[in-house]
Design a protein that fits this description.
CATH superfamily of one domain: Sporulation related repeat
Order of helices and strands: HHEHEEHE
Helix content: 25-40%
CATH class of one domain: Alpha Beta
Distance between the termini: 73 Å
Largest sheet: 4 strands, antiparallel
Number of helices: 4
């Protein structure tokens, strides 16, 4: 007996694409339809942050970078923490901004799932160290574990 090619094609398609093309449940009590995707984020991951803007004149006045209009080689920052909780990272970032009126970055590392909080843009390690010492003097219990980070260019 010869099977028509269209029937072979339809049978093969039914094996590879089960459940496609029908919104009705199978009569045999098959799996229920998956839930519709949610368009909103769960409350546990919503948090508020702001983008940083570097004001070159303000930075130059505080000895963090070269003179305005000149070529600036930002090479160092101070890392003040790394956190898994985005809410805590955002709070630390905001507090450092309020205290020092400087750029504070919140970089997310996908591999370990950490939010790195870094402050300042410094041209030299010595400028970064001077500012780090000031932070430790102003808030000894909060910035004692901070460290200087050299940026790769």
């Amino acid at each position: 007996m010869k099977v028509p090619p269209m029937l072979v094609f339809a049978s093969a398609l039914a094996l590879f694409l089960p459940g496609c093309g029908s919104t009705e449940e199978p009569a045999g009590g098959g799996k229920p339809a998956p839930p519709a995707p949610r368009s909103e984020s769960p409350d546990s991951v919503q948090f508020h942050t702001h983008a940083d803007t570097v004001n070159a004149l303000h930075a130059a006045e505080h000895g963090m970078v070269g003179a305005p209009g000149g070529t600036v080689q930002v090479r160092f920052m101070i890392q003040i923490g790394a956190f898994k909780d985005p809410h805590h990272a955002s709070a630390v970032q905001g507090e450092a901004r309020r205290r020092y009126h400087m750029p504070v970055l919140n970089d997310f590392l996908a591999g370990p799932g950490l939010y790195q909080i870094r402050i300042g843009f410094f041209e030299s390690r010595e400028n970064a160290r001077t500012f780090q010492q000031r932070m430790r003097r102003d808030y000894p219990s909060e910035y004692k574990d901070s460290w200087i980070v050299q940026l790769k260019r």
